[in-house]
Amino acid sequence: MTPATDEPLDPAAIAPALLAWYDRHHREMPWRVTPAARAAGARPDPYRVWLSEVMLQQTTVAAVRGYFERFTARWPTVQALAAAEDAEVMAEWAGLGYYARARNLLKCARAVAALGGFPDRRDALLALPGIGPYTAAAVAAIAHDEPVAVVDGNVERVASRLFAVELPLPGAKPWLAALAVTLTPEARPGDFAQAMMDLGATICTPRRPACAICPLTGPCGARAAGIAAELPRRTPKPEKPVRRGTAYVATDAAGAVLLETRPERGLLGGMLGFPGTDWAVVPPPPAPPFAADWQPAADPVRHTFTHFHLELTVMRATAPAGANPERGSFVAAFDPGALPTLMRKVWEAGR
Fold first, then answer.
1. Which residues span the domain enclosing 255?
2. Do the domain assignments include residue 1?
3. Active-site residue numbers?
4. CA angle 301, 307, 312 (to 5 degrees)
5. Is the dihedral of CA 28, 32, 37, 38 positive or negative?
6. Is residue 34 part of a domain?
7. CA angle in degrees (0–180, nearest 5) for 15-16-19
8. What pLDDT digit, counting tens, does each position of 44-86 carry?
9. CA pair distance 9, 14, nearest whole angstrom
10. Do residues 220 and 270 both lie within one domain?
11. How far is 96 from 92, CA to CA, in rounded Å?
12. For residue 317, what are the β-bridge partners?
């Protein structure tokens, strides 16, 4: 195909070209049913589709693959996950980040188990706890072939280039979502959604898009205008603030480690961690869990969350005989792998 610089893009021409490309070049993923298997009658498991989409939020495919395989080996059905202990699920999630997702995962699994299975329409899926518009559309389209648009960052990028949308993100999001709706076919909407994601991840990439091998070279408005690599444009983000605090790493004479379960609400909610102060732009006053000879670790721990950078001073001590912590309890069988990434950094700094 050659660039159609003098004719408007025809949305109906997009799906056949993209699906033909996807049939040949789709990525193999443990939660997917391949086009050939679908053609032979295999159906995607809505549980596996939902679990993968929740895990993939704000995370890469490479990071998720191992977590997904461990989760589905341990909890192969939504009913099995619904029956799991909260602490077990949170421990398996450790390292994936955005821990509110893990709490919502359990709430949703239990609601689905109570219903007897996943609803098959987007609107009904939206009524479940922890499921937003994107995840509801993904499960409805991929698992149940409802012809709804599934719009993630990859799809926004592809749509912005196809239609040469120069309005910057995030303001352009509603417009790009509406354009994605015009592209979504009645036939094979689930495969089309995954094809758009694969195109964005492998060819229509954020930097240096491989336009020469793209199946949509002809109708792409941004390529015709020579601005593909510049889109989507983005409104500059404000600089993230830095918050500071203190974390306390303590062991007793037998080597047990002082840990607490963080409050359900807030960052790292429900996860194991070390006692410490709040995190604030102005460092809060010290709040050790018991009186001891607390000594600072050599270096602070630095970690970045979505909206701020965090710098923690790590204090360490051996608990004196008879110490009675105001927060947490000493744990003898301590597995650092069960901690979220930030708390593993604290442990490494304070051990």
1. 242-350
2. no
3. 53
4. 15
5. negative
6. yes
7. 80
8. 999 999 999 999 987 889 999 999 999 999 999 999 999 999 9
9. 9
10. no
11. 9
12. 250
